[in-house]
């Protein structure tokens, strides 16, 4: 038998070019399918679809255990068959992180774990005795009252800058403790953190017909830049104007953030919820509805190829606390939230036309930027976790309500706890290895 040959050079070049095109097309098809996650299944002689699981953690190089099998270390990417996987990320000296993750065909699913140390290093930020701590709106500064210092002139009201100060000390004294005891004042930060309003109260004498009530006795407006004079003017008569100005500033802060949310959430957060607190990145919010409400179907999540697999709760119960994620349109129940006081924050979206200088309106101002006034929750700096205080001490939890992790069994005085802006530490007003009635600002290292 003679071998078939192509004698025409043009025909031969055409066949070669055709084979090259077919080879490139086949290679491109295989590359695309490989990029989508398809892998050869030798047993069934076919291509099986997979999904990509992107696993990250802080700190890195943590062990990844999938379905009870040690699989890899973070940070890594794994191609897995579609399905549900029990993922555990652990590292020596840190609390483990666990979650059931749904991997979908041809899609990327993320497992991002923030691991917290089992025994965090602690260091004092203050000594002697601290009372009446209050953090500002963005969590960069803490006002506190220092007492029992060996030098009486050092006692008084201070501002501590958490982010540090390259030009000097992080602690700046802004008032002496005489002639006023600021530990007994209601301290309210201005929206721009440039001033602190100190409100002093007194109780009226009860009679047979009227109970004892608390009323404003004096008020002082202090600058946070440096020492204020002892002979400050009482601003009690100016309180309505100050309240109106600060409400206007809060309106300018809240409205742009609020308008990022779906219309149904804008109505809910503005009129049918209390204790509304936005995350530092403004992409999440936790809130407490004042009536039973059903949220619409999650159209945002439907439009996305893949979202967090944690179960949602869209039928809201009055007085329960929930968290809404603007990027995925998801809503989660936070069952561990509790009230801390009778004050319930109402989100300020407009300045009151005729503000009254009442203690209730002043406590509303304080609650605008400090969630610890109203509940046992506050945002962790990275916006992915929430700080929770309960009978077990201080805890962190993922924004979807999973991985409740104990940081310390000590409890903060007056519910004061705040996260540093970079998330490297928690600062508590608490007692560690001191006399029972002695409290100081203590830093817990979370790195």
Features:
447 residues; four-stranded antiparallel sheet; alpha+beta; 5 helices; single chain; Immunoglobulin-like
Map the helices and strands.
Blueprint: H1 9-35, E1 39-41, E2 46-48, E3 51-58, E4 63-66, E5 69-73, E6 76-80, E7 83-90, E8 97-103, E9 108-114, E10 122-124, E11 129-135, E12 141-147, E13 156-161, E14 171-176, E15 186-189, E16 195-203, E17 214-223, H2 239-258, H3 263-271, E18 273-278, E19 284-289, E20 293-294, H4 299-303, E21 315-316, E22 322-325, E23 330-333, H5 359-369, E24 377-379, E25 385-390, E26 393-398, E27 405-408, E28 417-419, E29 425-430, E30 440-445
Parallel strand pairs: 3-9
Antiparallel strand pairs: 1-2, 3-6, 4-5, 4-7, 7-8, 10-30, 11-12, 12-13, 13-14, 15-16, 16-17, 18-19, 19-22, 20-21, 22-23, 24-25, 25-26, 26-27, 28-29, 29-30
Structural overview:
The chain is of the alpha+beta class and 447 residues long. It folds into 4 domains: 10-36; 50-114, Sandwich (Immunoglobulin-like); 123-234, no CATH class; 237-409, no CATH class. It is built from 5 helices and 30 strands. A 4-stranded antiparallel beta sheet has the order 5-4-7-8, with no helix packed on it. The protein starts with 8 loop residues before the first helix and ends with a strand.
Summarize the structure.
This is PEGA domain-containing protein. The protein is of the alpha+beta class.
Overall domain count: 4
Helix content: 10-25%
Oligomer: single chain
**How many alpha or pi helices?**
5
Strand order of the largest sheet: 5-4-7-8
DSSP strand tally: 30
Distance between the termini: 78 Å
The gross shape turns out to be: elongated
Give the helix/strand class.
alpha+beta
Low-confidence stretches: none
Main sheet overview: 4 strands, antiparallel
Radius of gyration: 29 Å
How much is the average pLDDT? 90
Q: How much beta, percentage-wise?
A: 35-45%
């Amino acid at each position: 038998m003679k071998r078939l040959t192509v004698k025409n050079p043009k025909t031969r070049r055409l066949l070669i070019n055709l084979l090259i095109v077919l080879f490139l097309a086949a290679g491109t098809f295989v590359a695309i399918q490989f990029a989508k996650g398809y892998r050869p299944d030798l047993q069934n002689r076919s291509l099986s679809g997979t999904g990509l699981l992107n696993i990250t953690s802080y700190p890195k190089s943590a062990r990844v255990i999938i379905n009870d099998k040690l699989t890899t270390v973070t940070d890594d990417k794994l191609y897995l068959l579609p399905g549900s996987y029990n993922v555990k990320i652990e590292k020596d000296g840190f609390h483990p992180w666990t979650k059931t993750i749904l991997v979908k065909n041809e899609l990327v699913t993320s497992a991002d774990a923030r691991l917290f140390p089992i025994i965090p290093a602690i260091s004092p930020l203050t000594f002697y005795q601290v009372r009446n701590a209050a953090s500002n709106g963005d969590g960069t500064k803490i006002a506190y009252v220092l007492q029992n210092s060996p030098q009486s002139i050092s006692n008084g009201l201070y501002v501590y800058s958490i982010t540090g100060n390259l030009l000097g000390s992080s602690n700046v004294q802004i008032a002496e403790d005489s002639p006023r005891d600021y530990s007994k004042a209601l301290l309210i930060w201005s929206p721009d953190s440039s001033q602190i309003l100190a409100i002093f109260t007194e109780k009226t004498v009860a009679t047979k017909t009227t109970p004892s009530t608390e009323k404003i006795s004096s008020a002082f407006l202090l600058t946070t830049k440096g020492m204020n004079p002892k002979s400050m003017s009482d601003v009690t008569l100016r309180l309505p104007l100050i309240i109106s100005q600060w409400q206007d500033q809060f309106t300018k802060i809240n409205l742009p953030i609020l308008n990022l949310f779906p219309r149904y959430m804008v109505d809910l957060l503005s009129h049918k919820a209390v204790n509304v607190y936005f995350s530092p990145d403004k992409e999440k919010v936790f809130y407490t509805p004042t009536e039973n409400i059903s949220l619409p179907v999650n159209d945002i999540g439907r439009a996305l190829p893949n979202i967090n697999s944690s179960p949602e709760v869209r039928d809201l119960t009055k007085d329960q606390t929930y968290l809404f994620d603007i990027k995925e349109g998801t809503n989660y129940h936070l069952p561990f939230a509790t009230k801390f006081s009778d004050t319930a924050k109402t989100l300020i979206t407009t300045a009151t036309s005729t503000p009254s200088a009442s203690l209730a309106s002043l406590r509303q101002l304080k609650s605008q930027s400090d969630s610890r006034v109203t509940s046992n929750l506050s945002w962790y700096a990275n916006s992915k976790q929430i700080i929770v205080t309960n009978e077990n001490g201080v805890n962190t939890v993922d924004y979807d309500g999973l991985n409740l992790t104990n940081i310390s069994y000590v409890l903060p005085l007056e519910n004061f706890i705040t996260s540093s802006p970079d998330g490297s530490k928690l600062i508590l007003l608490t007692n560690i290895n001191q006399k029972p009635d002695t409290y100081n600002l203590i830093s817990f290292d979370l790195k």
